[in-house]
Amino acid sequence: MGRLSGRLDDPTADAGYDASHPPRMGFFTDTSVCIGCKACEVACKEWNSVPDDGYVLTGMSYDNTEALGASTWRHVAFVEKPTSTSTQSVDLGMPGMRTDHAEGQDQEAESGTDGMRWLMSSDVCKHCTHAACLDVCPTGSIFRTEFGTVVVQPDICNGCGYCVPACPYGVIDLREEDGRAFKCTLCYDRLKEGQTPACAQACPTESIQFGELDDLRDRADQRLAELREKGVDAARLYGRDPEDGVGGDGAFFLLLDEPEVYGLPPDPVVTTRDIGSIWKHVGAAAAAVAGLGIAAFAGRRHR
Q: Fewer CB within 10 Å, N or C, the chain?
């Protein structure tokens, strides 16, 4: 465990790897071109042999997985947003996008004078620069790979569950069947063979983009500028800033609304940030109690 918070440009080196380690790899998910097909969910489950989620419809739109968990490493969110039919449609670059559509009809289901638009996003573990789950793991089950990703080793996990409340995004979870923690590995086995993670490989619109993190950040900046130029003022990048509360994410997003709309925390902070200062205060308090005890004992002996 290295630094607990603040900007960190090379978390892999901070984890103890030498300077010859590979570049940091990650995901950039452009939600503006996500069509909600769930190909990423299926590919993730098939490649990683992730068990089913129960095949239960939640009643929340077309979302039948609801959230990330031990058996849901990719989650496609379907967010329904009411909108006026007078809203100006914007070509976001979707494959096969019609340019002759009537105003307000693109990607909306109209109902009377008001309509509805979909916001779709494929959520995943963020592979944080400062990963609190890794910091609190007592067995070393969670480790930083040479690619800068964060991986759980199930054969070492003892099921203590410390990692679950430590994650600021609520990603990692324990599997009820055996009590161990599971989450996205960013297909570590594929990365070691120079292959693309299964979810990104299966994405038909390239909403999920995989590559070197620095290149993805540049690509995301260009995409954001493109959307802003087209009038999509609500577009924003989430998890891209290395100065944020987790030091930036290895898997970050382009969103078309506030993070809370997608079920994401607006200002995530690594939960282990204050561990150092906490232990300093605990040490000072312990020293003070010990000092009082010694003083009391010495006072008795002088009587």
A: C
| Cα 188 from Cα 165, distance rounded (Å) | 24
- Residue percentage of the chain with pLDDT more than 90: 67
Residue type, 170: G
* Domain boundaries, given as residue ranges, for the chain: 11-272, 275-303
Beta-strand ranges (E) seen in 94-146 are 108-111, 114-124, 142-144
Q: Which fold has domain 11-272?
A: Alpha-Beta Plaits (3.30.70)
Distances 278 to 94, 99, 224, 274, 301 between C-alpha atoms, Å: 49, 58, 39, 6, 35
Q: What angle do CA 277, 18, 24 make, to 5 degrees?
A: 80
Tokens, residue 210: 């995989």
Point out which residues pair with 75 in neighbouring strands.
123
pTM value is: 0.81
Q: What is the pLDDT of residues 215-239, one digit of tens each?
A: 999 999 999 999 999 999 999 999 9
- DSSP of 231-245, one letter per residue? T-TT-EEES--TTST
Lowest average pLDDT, out of 7-16, 135-144, 241-250, 294-303, goes to: 294-303
Whether the Cβ atoms of residue 208 and residue 29 lie closer than 8 Å to each other: yes
